[in-house]
Amino acid sequence: MKNENNSTKEFDVYDFDHTLVPFDTGTRFILYCWVRYPWCIISLPVVAVGGILTALRAISFTKFKQSCFFFVRMIPLERAVKGFWNRFAPRAYPWFKERRRDCIVISASPDFLLNAVKERLGIENLICTRHNAKTGAIIGENCRDEEKVRRLKEEYPNAKIIDVYSDSYTHDRPIFSLATGKTFHIEKGKRVEFDYNKVYGED
After folding, report:
1. Scanning 60, 109, 117, 174, which has the fewest C-beta atoms within 10 Å of its C-beta?
2. Distances (CA, A) of 34 to 72, 133, 144
3. pTM for the full model?
4. Largest Cα–Cα distance in the chain?
5. Average pLDDT for consecutive 10-residue bins of the chain (203 residues)?
6. What is the dihedral of CA 12, 18, 22, 27, to 10 degrees?
């Protein structure tokens, strides 16, 4: 759904994993659940087969990611997510609180994970991969690469993007290209400003 109320405002855009926190949220949550709810390990063969099929290009990365979250049907998800963030939310980088503009955080991580920490971290606007919280199935596309830009334009069609922050030169060139201000690469939790044209060449 388009957010018409905020569509004409200025925003800074942030990736989430390895950008606002020092880990990949989905992977960390999977490992957390396998330890806390050890019976979830029975889903490991599903993940292994999905990994092999992805490597053989028999299925998409989105399908593989969906297999990784097959286990959510086996756990009390809301309680698990709450426990996860009680443990890991304090590890978010403190500089995020120093921002001068409202933000749009765009991430490939599951919505059932990031929606639960949005208020705690003070995230005004959030776009992430939609999942069926009962089955782990992905709804639509994995919010990655060009899909981030598509979702951003869909939900904030007239937003002016000022600064962009991400840890990935490779995957987040599409959102870096939207910056009308500065671009920052996150390196070991530090914000390192870079010149888009020097890194990617003139468009």
Report:
1. 60
2. 11, 17, 25
3. 0.92
4. 52
5. 60 98 97 94 89 91 90 96 98 94 97 97 97 93 96 95 97 97 97 96 71
6. 130
